[in-house]
Every structure is written in structure tokens, then in C-alpha cells.
Design brief:
The structure holds two protein chains of two kinds. In chain A, 21% of the residues lie in helices and 26% in strands. Chain A is α/β, with parallel strands linked by helices. In chain A, strands 2-1-3-4-11-10-9-6-7 form a nine-stranded mixed sheet, with helices on both faces. Chain B is of the alpha+beta class. Chain B is built from 25 helices and 28 strands. In chain B, the strands form five sheets. Chain B has a seven-stranded mixed sheet. A seven-stranded mixed sheet of chain B has the order 23-25-22-26-24-27-28. In chain B, a hairpin with a 5-residue loop joins strand 12 (354-358) and strand 13 (364-369). In chain B, helix 7 packs parallel to helix 8, helix 8 (142-162) runs parallel beside helix 10 (247-262) and helix 18 runs parallel beside helix 19 (512-532). The radius of gyration of chain B is 26 Å and the shape is globular. Chain B starts with 12 loop residues before the first helix and ends in a 6-residue tail after the last helix. Classes of the chains: A alpha/beta, B alpha+beta. The A-B interface holds A 9-13, 15-16, 19-20, 47-49, 51-54, 107-111, 137, 139, 194, 196-197, 200, 202-204 and B 153, 156-157, 160-163, 246-249, 251-252, 339-340, 429-441, 453, 567-568.
């Protein structure tokens, strides 16, 4: 399968995401100004500070030409993974529910955190086991997941929360300790932790690889219609 | 000769710009006329301490700069050493002290931005940042807490946003830094040999292209106003001289420059730092032996109506200057457009040997021989005089007394672990991204040095160190200790030193005792580098770090890069396995002089520091390095501030394991210090069971100690080192026990260590 990783000006983790994706398949870099997804099977919107993020995080990137293609791709059921800034961009683009607010500390935080897999019944967590713990780093200034209480309840009851910070591990004040959510259709997923920085035993944990392996498995075995 | 240029006006204008009367006389003599306003502005910057190193250049000649692994030495934007596989590592440390004292967030941020540009100016992709910070006592000074908070924020803002990991650093607090904080930033970059590029302009007819941000009025005169004079009252008014950083612009500029180099579109490349276009253009011209015509009206401006002198001295950030063959200009501009980076042809290379600055009408606002800008600034001999006893008076005096001296060893240990200089740096490094770019094998607090994997399968290690307190006690030994401590940090991860960069932060060199500190410290650095056979490939000098009440502690900061064959075997800081044997490696005869405990007890700064046995140090470093490389050890940690008790406690804290240790007979003071000389290591009993023989390094590579040649860096001193490996205890349990001295729960150690700095942030 082929991953496409988007590069905006100001993206930082696009090469990391490409390297991680290449552990389970092919991966190419997609340029923000192109209306072309190069026929990829899944899109990754990586971490970083797209367009400097001097406005609200992700607010400018959602208008990039490539994002029109990502939106069409997602509407057609294509798999889209947003990591950190990518999660923020997908929320701004309306492809994911909720919003990412500044951390309660108002500071950038880097930390290796423990996550709990809430549901393994998804395109992005199917290589995990429900209740499993994953050790994956976070690094962000605006990662506090927020949704109005009714929407939050709806997300929870619809099983759209796929990852939570383990008890005591919430680094940013996210509501319900939410670390990652999917859209209603299940083909778009955003998370603040960086699975691409947890794929190499030399560098740390390898737990993040399970996210990429899940996507690989999903593409290899199309979901029943 | 009558000047066609406007005259410089009031006779004392040169003084306002920081030139002495004698220097101005020399300018008149060399030029044969009075300089115009633009010319005087340019000359005053190029002849400033910051650009001309006029008080330090002669002293710096003492440093060894050559070695088999050096690809680029001092004089380029950054030094470069060979790391094998056709790759070079570029690195440099630079200060941004004065701007950070005036506006800490932007001062620190642009310090990072500047050092990143130095590294990609030689064609290397920045792969890591480290920083070395000094502030006044956080417990006593709200200003120091503010500077700490904002400087750390600024470093994170720039490094995190641009996608370069911050992998290490150090922070110390002493009263002498109250008015003059230090913010030194170091960057490492990676480049294939063929992409390395120098800054010499070449080829008359080639064009000068300015890349990056618009030129504004920010930072005008920063080099002379801020960096080359003492700080004092009214510094708020200097804020407009501090530049504002834009990491997003720099990120695009970085990617753009690397693509231009990959496509081989550039003849030469130089960053714009202090003194902006003036310094970058004249240095490029000087190195290439050519002349340049610069058309000010072609420089894209942030605000209208800027005068030529403002354009030439602006320190607006995120700009680079390159020389391009005329037929490649269209390609260059196309690449820049793709990266949304401005590119403007602003001048032409010629063979005149002169730097001409033309205004919109083509009239020369400046027309100077390149040599007068770059080479003619007089270099001063220092007039060093050793201070009489009592030694130099520092602002703030000695720190407030925390310990009376009657505390139990356990309470002393906890006080040390809690002290701001030794407490956990987690609250700081959690504000930095250490993992972006996917090569960080050892993060902060995992090992004594950061370790970065290379595409060759090998790795590099890097450490930054400097202890002003000890240099204040003895500039020569204290500076040498900083070099040995860096090398010891590298040994702990299994790396051998390849090169050094340094930042010399001192007070006013025109004062005899500061001159003496500078000369002595450089001697110490040089002799330590020679002992380790490691060259100094670049660096920076920051002088005039002085307040009305006196100078800062003399603070040479050392950055050292090394190489290790197998990143999977890189050493770790924490104890790892119950029942492992703990060994002391090295010849260790520490002293309480200049120690952290002496500080906590409010004792006067005084030597003597323990002597340095270069042969024994090399031997101990080699022993630890080889044991780490062999995979035999489970942890390795050098013994530095707080002595052996703190070193062992740090291994317990990092590993979450206790230890029972019986200190060797004769080692009476567990808190006495002798940094850079000895180590605490642990591993299976069998590793140490063979007695002295186990510590043997690679026999054939042992040269004659002290002799020249490539073998010397790994040379013997074997006897001292072998004698210096002794088992002193065992890992295990949940308490640290130093037999007959103290017994403390590891959780209590962790608690003290974790909260010491946190309360100030």
C-alpha cells in the first residue's frame, strides 16, 4: 500500500511520518500546493507548525489546495490520519469533531505518555487490543481536546474515542482524557500523541507502529460495504 | 583628498558608535579622508568586539585547530568534522547574552535562529540544538526567574517550531549572573561532504542574491550597542535593538537553501547575523579576495524610507546572502518561489577589492576597501594581571548560606539534590522537542550525553558543559575541567571526541584581572584539548558581561562532539539491574574547593582545585568508553557536581533502584569534587571480576602517552586507569546506603531532585 504524507511549509514531522509509514508500506511526500494525492491509499497529515501557526493552530492549513483533495478523498471513504498539527488541521477542516485548545499549562510539553486503547474496532487501532497500553510521546502547545458536552457525550456513545491518556497521564487537560478521536464514518482519525516517534526500538518505544500496521491491515482488507 | 560623500558631522560621532579616538584616527589614516555616515556606521560595527574579536583574537591563536577529522576549521560559519561514510557534522556554539538580558524570549529565540543559520550556511541540515544558560539565584531574584522562564520559552519556541530537536543543555544559577545572564546556543548539522560550502565570494560577474526576510529597522547596531559594552541603567531603551524571531520564515529559508545546494546552484553562502549585510558581504568579499557592488534600492524593505546605512546594518533575522552565476539566477528564484522565500539580486561581484554601497540614484553611499572593514581593525594585546588575594569581587558576592555545616550526610545529600544547580532539569527540557527527525537515541536525562543515530549505522554524541564557579576559583584548571567533563560525558555513552566548539563568556577584557582570567582559561582549554587530541573547530567570544558591581564568573562553555560505532550500545545514566556490581573508575582525589557544597555553605570562592593528571584522565575515559562499547556495562555516569554521593544518587534516581556502597578508604568527603576525572559504572559482577585486566582497551592502538600522532587520543595511561577500577558496591533495594555515612530512600532522593527547580518555574 502507499501512504501519502502532506508537507506544508512549517511541517516538522513529515519525514518522521514517512519513515514510520515505510516500515509497513510505501510512502511519498505530498506538496501542499498541489491538487494531487498521487493515488495514495491513505493520507497522513503530520505534526509541525503549518504556515507558522501564528494564527489559530491549523487555521490556515485547512485552506491549502491539497486539503480540497484530502476532503474529497475522505468523503469517498479514504483513510486519513492526522497527527498533532494534522489533528488540529482536520478539526479546523471540519473532518473531525471537537477542537484542540491551548494546554492548561499554557506551555509546550514534551512527554512520553501512556495511552489506553479504548476501542480496537477501528481502521486505525485494529492491530491493538482493547484496553492495551501504548507508550507514545506527545509534544505540543495546543493539545487540549474540547467538545461541547452534548457532542462529547455523542462521541463517547458512538465509540469515536479510540485513545485516551492513561489515568494520571493527561498532559494537556483534554476532556475525558481524550488523546485521539475518529469521525463518525470511521475513516478519519486524529491524535495528539506522535505514533511516528514510537516505531524504532533504538529510539524508544515501538508501540506507535500499531497505528500504521492497523492502516496497512485495513487497506489490505477492505471493510465490508 | 576631497570626499564626494557626506561628512560624518559632529566630531565625536565615532565615540557614540563605540570607536575609540585612536581607532578613528587609524580609519582616517587608512582611508585618507573622513568616512561618510554610512561608512562610519559600517566601520563601527566591523571594528566592534563582536565582529573583530579585537581583544580576543590573539589569545585564541593558542587553541589547537587541526586534526585528521577536521573538514572545516575556525573562520567558516561553523566547523565541520568527518564522521565517516562521506558525512560531515557541522557544529558551533554562540552567545546571545546581551539581547537575552534585555528581552529574554526574543533574545534566546533569535540566538537559536542565528546558530541554526550558521550551520545551514555551510550546507548542513541542522539536526540538534543544545543550550547553556546562566542566571542569578532563582530563590532570591524574581528577575532571574523571569529570565529563566522567558529564555527557556524562547529557545523552545524557535527550536520546536523549526523542527530541530533540542537534545541537551545545562543551566547554572549564581549571583554573578544576576545582571548579565548567559544564553549560549549550540547547533549540530549533518551534510554529505559534497554539499559542504564555504562563504568566500568568487567569480567577478557573478551576482549577489539576498534570500529570506524583509529588511527592517530591527536590531540596528545590535553588535556594537548590545554585545560590545557593559549593560547598565536604561537597558529598556535598548529593546528596539533586539531582533524579533520568525521560525516559520527560517524553516522555509532552511529548506530553500538546502534545496539550492542540493541542486548545486550556489557558488557560496553566508548567513546574516550581527552587523547584517555589512558583515556578511564584507566577509564574503574578503575571503574571496574580490569586491562587491551592493544596490541598496534592490533590498526588499519592511518599511519605507530606510537610509542606506540602516539597510547595511539592519540585523533583521532569517536572511542569507549567496553568490550565484548569472545564468543560474532564474533557477534560484524558482526554487525560492516554491519555498515562498524572497530572493533578490542585490549586487554584483567584481575584482575591485572594494565594497561599494549604491543608493537608488546609483550614488555611492559607501565606497570602502574590503580590507579596511575586515582586516584593519587593530588587535589588542591583553594586559593580564592576576588578582591579588582576596580574589575578584563578583556582583552579589557569594550565594546565601543554605547549610550551616552541621547537617547529617543524608540531609546534605538531599539539600544538594534539591539545589537549583543540581535539581532535575525536567521542567525545562519538557518544553523542548527532543525527538523530531527520528535520530535521538539518548534523550535528555537518559545519559550523560545526547546520542544521535547516523544513516551510516553509527552515531554521534554531543555534550555541552562549563562551570563558572570552578573557573572563578582557578581559570586554567577550571576551564580544562570543562573540556575533560565533556569528554567524560561522551565516554559514558561510548563516544570518542572528534571536535570542540567553545563560547568564552567573560567580563570586560580591558580590566587586567578579567584579561588574566581569559588568558588562563584559554591556556587550560588548549592544554586539555591537546591532551585529548581533539581540535577546536569554531566558537564565539562574548566579552563585557559585566555590571557596575563587577563581572560574571569567567564562563567558558565547551561543546564537544564525538562518535560511537553502535548506537544500540550507547550507555545510560540510571542503574538498571538488581545485584549489579558498582565500580568507581578513574583516579579520584576530589576536593571541597569550588564545590556545590561549598556554595551551599556560603564559603568563599577559593582553590586550589584538584590537580589534573592528563594521563590518568585519558586512561579512565578510555576504560569507560571501551567497556560501554563492549556492551558490558548497564550504566555509566561521570562524577561531577556534588561529588560521588550525588553521582551515585543520580544513578539511583534515573534507574529507580537503590544501592549499597562502601566508599574507598581515603575518600573521606563524599561531596568533594573533581569533575571530568572519574566515573560510577555498573554491570554484572563478572565484568569487574578479572581485576585490573578487565579494563584493557584495544591494545594495538595504544600509542606512547604524550606523543604526537593519531594514536594519542586513545593512548594508554593504562596503569593509572587499570588501578582505578574498583568495585565499591551493589545495585539493589529501594534505598541508597553509603555505609557508615547515610541511608536514604530512593523515593526521597527522587522527590528532592524532582522539585528543586520546579518551584521556580
Amino acid at each position: 500500500m502507499k501512504f501519502g504524507v502532506i508537507r506544508f511549509p512549517g511541517s516538522c514531522d513529515e519525514v518522521d511520518a514517512q519513515l514510520a509509514a515505510e516500515r509497513v508500506g510505501e510512502a511519498v511526500i505530498l506538496w501542499h500546493a498541489d491538487h494531487d494525492l498521487q493515488g495514495v491509499d491513505a493520507v497522513v497529515i503530520p505534526g509541525g507548525f503549518s504556515y507558522g501557526d501564528y494564527l489559530r493552530v491549523g487555521a490556515i492549513a485547512r485552506f491549502a489546495p491539497v486539503m480540497e483533495e484530502v476532503a474529497s478523498f475522505a468523503r469517498a471513504g479514504g483513510l486519513v490520519l492526522g497527527i498533532c498539527n494534522g489533528f488540529q488541521v482536520l478539526c479546523e477542516a471540519g473532518l473531525l469533531p471537537g477542537a484542540l485548545l491551548p494546554n492548561t499549562s499554557l506551555r509546550f510539553v514534551f512527554r512520553q505518555v501512556e495511552l489506553e486503547v479504548v476501542s480496537a474496532d477501528s481502521a486505525f487501532t485494529r492491530a491493538c487490543v482493547e484496553g492495551e497500553r501504548l507508550s507514545i510521546p506527545v509534544k505540543h502547545t495546543s493539545g487540549r481536546f474540547y467538545a461541547p458536552s452534548e457532542e462529547l457525550a455523542r462521541l463517547e456513545s458512538a465509540g469515536q474515542v479510540l485513545l485516551r491518556y492513561a489515568p494520571g497521564e493527561n498532559p494537556n487537560g483534554s476532556l475525558n482524557d481524550i488523546a485521539g478521536v475518529r469521525n463518525q464514518a470511521g475513516n478519519v482519525f486524529g491524535l495528539m500523541p506522535h505514533p511516528e516517534h514510537a516505531v524504532d526500538p533504538l529510539i524508544g518505544s515501538v508501540d506507535g507502529l500499531k497505528i500504521f500496521e492497523s492502516i496497512r491491515a485495513q487497506v489490505g482488507e477492505p471493510a465490508p460495504v | 583628498m576631497a570626499s564626494p560623500l557626506p561628512s560624518s558631522g559632529p566630531a565625536d560621532k565615532h565615540r557614540e558608535l563605540g570607536l575609540t579616538d585612536a581607532e578613528y584616527e587609524l580609519i582616517l589614516q587608512r582611508l585618507g579622508r573622513e568616512p561618510g555616515d554610512t561608512e562610519l556606521a559600517m566601520l563601527s560595527l566591523m571594528w566592534s568586539e563582536h565582529c573583530a574579536y579585537k581583544h580576543s583574537r590573539k589569545v585564541l591563536r593558542r587553541l589547537p585547530t587541526e586534526g585528521p577529522s577536521v573538514l572545516m576549521g575556525p573562520g567558516e560559519n561553523a566547523g565541520v568534522v568527518d564522521v565517516g561514510g562521506g558525512l560531515g557534522v557541522a557544529f558551533k556554539v554562540e552567545s546571545h547574552n546581551h539581547p537575552s538580558a534585555v528581552e529574554p524570549f526574543q533574545g534566546a529565540a533569535t540566538g537559536v535562529g542565528g546558530i541554526l543559520r550558521d550551520v545551514f550556511a555551510v550546507g548542513a541540515r541542522p539536526i540538534a540544538v543544545l543550550d547553556s544558560l546562566r542566571f542569578g539565584e532563582p530563590a532570591l531574584s524574581a528577575r532571574s526567574r523571569y529570565l529563566l522562564d522567558r529564555a527557556v520559552g524562547g529557545i523552545g519556541h524557535y527550536g520546536n517550531s523549526i523542527g530541530v530537536p533540542t537534545v541537551g543543555g545545562e543551566i547554572y544559577f549564581e549571583p554573578s549572573y544576576e545582571q548579565n545572564c548567559l544564553v549560549n546556543a549550540m547547533c549540530l548539522g549533518l551534510a554529505p561532504h559534497e554539499r559542504l560550502i564555504r562563504s568566500a565570494a568568487a567569480g567577478p560577474g557573478n551576482v549577489l542574491v539576498l534570500l529570506g526576510a524583509l529588511t527592517g529597522r530591527d536590531g540596528i547596531g545590535g553588535a556594537s550597542v548590545l554585545a560590545s559594552a557593559e549593560l547598565g541603567e536604561g537597558d529598556e531603551a535598548k529593546r528596539p535593538s533586539v531582533q524579533i524571531g520568525d521560525p516559520f520564515s527560517e524553516k522555509k529559508l532552511l529548506e530553500c537553501c538546502l534545496e539550492l545546494l542540493d541542486r548545486e546552484l550556489l557558488v557560496s553562502l553566508q548567513d546574516l547575523g550581527a552587523a547584517g549585510l555589512t558583515s556578511s558581504s564584507s566577509e564574503m568579499a574578503s575571503k574571496g579576495g574580490v569586491g562587491l557592488d551592493i544596490d541598496c534600492s534592490a533590498v526588499p524593505l519592511r518599511e519605507a524610507g530606510m537610509e542606506p546605512f540602516e539597510i547595511m546594518v539592519s540585523e533583521s533575522q532569517e536572511r542569507m546572502l549567496c553568490v550565484v552565476e548569472p545564468e543560474r539566477v532564474a533557477e534560484v528564484i524558482a526554487v525560492c518561489e516554491r519555498w515562498e522565500t524572497l530572493a533578490s539580486v542585490i549586487g554584483i561581484v567584481n575584482d575591485s577589492g572594494r565594497l561599494r554601497v549604491l543608493d537608488a540614484d546609483g550614488v555611492a553611499a559607501a565606497d570602502l576597501p574590503v580590507g579596511i572593514l575586515v582586516d584593519d581593525c587593530p588587535l589588542y594585546d591583553l594586559e593580564p594581571v592576576a588578582p591579588e588575594s582576596p580574589s575578584v569581587v563578583y556582583p552579589g558576592g557569594v550565594a546565601a548560606t543554605v547549610l550551616g555545616g552541621a547537617e547529617s550526610p543524608a540531609d546534605t545529600l538531599l539539600a544538594l539534590l534539591r539545589s537549583p544547580n543540581l535539581a532535575s532539569r525536567r521542567p525545562v527540557f519538557e518544553q523542548y522537542d527532543p525527538v523530531v527527525q527520528s535520530r535521538t537515541v539518548r534523550r535528555p536525562a537518559e545519559a550523560d550525553a545526547a546520542v544521535l543515530a547516523l544513516p551510516t549505522g553509527e552515531a554521534i554524541a554531543v555534550s555541552i558543559d562549563g562551570n563558572g564557579r570552578r573557573v572563578a576559583c582557578d581559570p586554567r584548571l577550571g576551564a580544562a575541567e570543562a573540556v575533560f567533563e565533556c569528554a567524560a560525558n561522551l565516554a559514558c555513552v561510548g563516544a570518542i571526541p572528534l571536535g570542540v566548539t567553545n563560547c568564552l563568556n567573560f567580563g570586560n577584557p580591558e580590566k587586567p584581572h578579567v584579561a588574566w582570567q581569559l588568558v588562563e582559561a584559554v591556556e587550560g582549554l588548549a592544554s586539555a584539548c591537546e591532551a585529548l587530541d581533539v581540535p577546536v573547530v569554531g566558537g564565539n567570544v562574548s566579552l563585557y558581561n559585566e555590571a557596575p558591581a563587577g563581572p560574571i564568573f569567567p564562563t567558558p562553555v565547551i561543546g564537544m562532539v564525538g562518535r560511537l560505532p553502535d548506537p544500540a550500545r550507547a550507555g545510560r545514566l540510571g542503574f538498571a539491574h538488581e545485584r549489579d556490581a558498582i565500580a568507581l573508575v578513574g583516579w579520584f582525589a576530589p576536593s571541597p574547593a569550588g564545590s556545590e557544597l561549598a556554595k551551599l555553605r556560603g564559603e568563599e570562592l577559593a582553590g586550589p582545585l584538584p590537580p589534573i593528571d592528563e594521563r590518568a584522565i585519558r586512561g579512565a575515559h578510555e576504560t569507560v568508553r571501551e567497556l560501554v562499547r563492549s556492551g558490558a556495562l548497564h550504566n555509566a555516569h561521570d562524577i561531577a557536581e556534588g561529588g560521588i554521593a550525588v553521582a551515585i544518587a543520580e544513578c539511583c534516581i534515573a534507574g529507580g533502584l537503590g544501592a549499597t556502597v562502601r566508599l574507598p578508604d581515603g575518600l573521606l568527603d563524599p561531596f568533594a569534587e573533581a569533575p571530568g576525572r572519574a566515573f560510577v559504572v555498573s554491570g554484572p559482577e563478572s565484568v569487574f571480576a578479572g581485576g585490573p585486566g578487565v579494563a584493557g582497551g584495544p591494545g594495538p592502538s595504544r600509542g606512547v602517552a604524550g606523543g604526537p600522532g593519531p594514536g594519542r587520543g586513545v593512548a594508554g595511561g593504562s596503569t593509572a586507569a587499570l588501578d582505578g577500577v574498583q568495585v565499591i558496591g551493589r545495585v539493589g533495594g529501594d534505598e541508597l546506603e553509603l555505609e557508615g555515612r547515610l541511608k536514604v530512600a530512593v523515593s526521597e532522593l527522587q522527590n528532592a531532585h524532582e522539585h528543586g527547580l520546579l518551584e521556580f518555574l
